[in-house]
Structure formats: structure tokens, C-alpha cells
Amino acid sequence: MRSALIALALPLVLAVGAASAEAAEDAGYIKASNGVVQIERSGQRLPAPVGSVVHQGDLVITGADGSVGITFRDNSLLSVGPDSVLSIDRFVFNSTTHLGAFESSLKQGTLAVVSGKLAKQSPEAMKVKTPAAILGVRGTEFLVRTGPSTN
Amino acid sequence: MFEPARRRTDPRNLVRLAPLALLVLAGCAGRGDLYVLLPGKGGHNGALIVTSGDGQRVLDQPYAAARVSRTGSVEAVATTEAEVRRAFGPALAAQPGRPVSFYLYFLADTDEFTPESKQVVTQIFAEIARRPAPDIVIIGHTDRVGPVPYNDQLSLKRAERVREDLRKLGIPKVRISVAGRGEREPEVPTADEVPEPRNRRVEINVR
């Protein structure tokens, strides 16, 4: 009886464990942070100094004097300038096959991108959205500016 | 919806709101949106595909740029390197250092690094020391002898062993992750089942 219960409960525990492990997995690390830089995660705003972890679902926010550079696990490099809001919508990377997905949205401000292993492996893997457009990335370096806080 | 209507009765608020309204209008129309392809490293430019509604434009030349003035309208615009540097200066200045890879090779049928690889270890430690918040990825690679799943396992084991080796050699306390890339990324392409020592290597990606 007890073993039957454990047998029933075990897959459930494993499933929950696997799901939370994926959600909490590091997407990238902050390598440069100037001025006011914050990460909004689960409704909380945290300061984001050099060395901070970036997760899928995070909102990266810079102030009027802020800029931040992030290296992702697949070696994509994303950096944003002042008065910017960048949402890390989805980051999944298999380090053996290089398959996965990287979707982010620049809500406002400026963004510089050097694509990494995901975009190199599959042309559809990396997408950057703005309120006005969707960008498809074919292994490249590019810049994006959007929203009201431009000059 | 009702808030701005009520505020409109107060002329001081109207003055305050006017620039804001212009900004909001500009934002809705997407004015100021700009998409620029940069020259890629090593002459490989790739391409950026800008899609807005039914409009689409492919940027595949260095400094080719597009603007989206309203949804569905993607226009080509001319930019220069100087303009781009000005418009994106802080974002470009904050770009993290490019990841750099080093390769370690083993003496045949042993766990020992070749003498050259011992020198490479010194270079790896120096590269780590000069980066802010460095992290490294240790990536094992195999040749094409054996099945793919076996080589995936073997390459991961090789990477894990090198992690221990580097710890013994006194690697600084940094984030270390390991990966096994199996036979997918050969240094020297070969037919299947061909032994190739140059492909039996471990890559240290410092970033």
C-alpha cells in the first residue's frame, strides 16, 4: 500500500521538480552594468549589478543613465542603452544539440544583438519583437530602436 | 479612458499633457523605430528579416537599415556607421566581451594533457582574470568512432574530467558549466567511424 502510494506520488514529484528546474535555469549573466539597471522578476524589482543572473521571464529595465550587457548561455550577446525595457520572453538551449528558442521583446529603447549558437543552429530559433515589428535573425549582428524614449 | 477627459478641463494639465500626447502618438505609429544590420565578424553578415503586418524587408548588407513608420510599412533608410554609433552608443558600449575558446588535447590513450595544452591552461587562467564576472563552459568533443549517443556521453565525461583537472590546477572561483557536444562539431571533418585525434578535444569557452 505504502509503496503503491510512493509509486503514484513519485512521477508527480519528478514532474514538478523537472518543471521548476527548467524555469529556474540561468538564461544568461550580466557582464556590464552602468547607472540604474533593474530586473523585474515575479513582480519584484531587483538591482542588477555585474554578475547577476538573468532568467527566462525577466524584464530588464534601464534608467536614463543606464546600460547593461548580458551574455546568454548560447553565447548570444544582448546589450541595451538608456531608458530601455527588454523582456526575455523565452530562452531554451540544449548545449549538446544547440536546439532551442530565444525570444525577446524590446518594449522601448535601444538594443544591440550579436546572435549566438541557437541562431547558428536553426534560422527560426531566435526572434526579437518590438511593438511594431518582428525580427528574424540569420546569424548576425544588429541594432534595434523602438518606442517613445528615442532621440 | 475617462482620466484624460477630466484632466482636459484644467488648462495647466493640458499644457503638461501635450508633449506626452505627442510622445504617445509617436510611439503608437512606431516613429523612431529603426533596425540596422551590422557587419558580422569574419565577413559573415547574415541577414535580418524585418516583418511588420504584411510588410517585410530583408537586410543583408552592412548598415542596411529599415524603419517602421506604421504597422505594415517597412521602409528602407540610409544610415552611416557614424550615425549608428551615435544613435546606439551606450548600447554598443555595454556589449559584453566576445566569448573566446581554447582547446585542450590529450596524449593518446591517457588522461594527460599534451605539453602544449599545459601552456593553454595558463592562457585560459589569464583570460578569466581579465574579464568582468567571468564564467566558463567546458565542452567535450569526440571523433566519429562509435554511435552518436555514446559520443554524447563520452564528450560530457571528458568535459567533467577536465573540470576536475582545472580545479586541481587552481582555476579561479568562477561559474563553470559542462557540455558534451559529441561528434557534432569536428575540428577536422571526417567520414563516420574514422579515428581522428584532433577531434578528441575539450573546448574551454571563456566569456
Outline the structure in words.
Chain A has two helices and twelve strands. With 151 residues, chain A is an alpha+beta fold. In chain A, strands 1, 2, 3, 4, 5, 6, 7, 8, 9, 10, 11 and 12 form a twelve-stranded mixed beta sheet that branches. Chain A is globular, with a radius of gyration of 18 Å. The N terminus of chain A is likely disordered. By secondary structure, chain B is α+β, with helices and mostly antiparallel strands. Chain B has two domains: 92 residues, no CATH class; 107 residues, OmpA-like domain (60s Ribosomal Protein L30, Chain: A), CATH 3.30.1330. Chain B contains six helices and nine strands. Chain B has a four-stranded mixed beta sheet. In chain B, strands 1-4-5 form a three-stranded antiparallel beta sheet, with no helix packed on it. Chains A and B meet through strand 1, strand 6, strand 7, strand 9 and strand 11 of A and helix 2, strand 1, strand 2, helix 4 and strand 7 of B.
Number of helices of chain B: 6
Largest sheet of chain B: 4 strands, mixed
Helix content of chain A: 10-25%
Q: What's the N-to-C terminus distance of chain B?
A: 48 Å
Low-confidence stretches of chain B: 1-30
Number of domains of chain A: 1
In CATH, the architecture of chain A is Sandwich
How many E strands of chain B?
9
Find the CATH topology of the largest domain in chain B.
Answer: 60s Ribosomal Protein L30, Chain: A
Record field, number of beta strands of chain A? 12
Beta-strand content bin of chain B:
25-35%
How many domains comprise the coordinates of chain B? 2
Reading off the top of the CATH hierarchy, the class of the largest domain in chain B is best stated as Alpha Beta
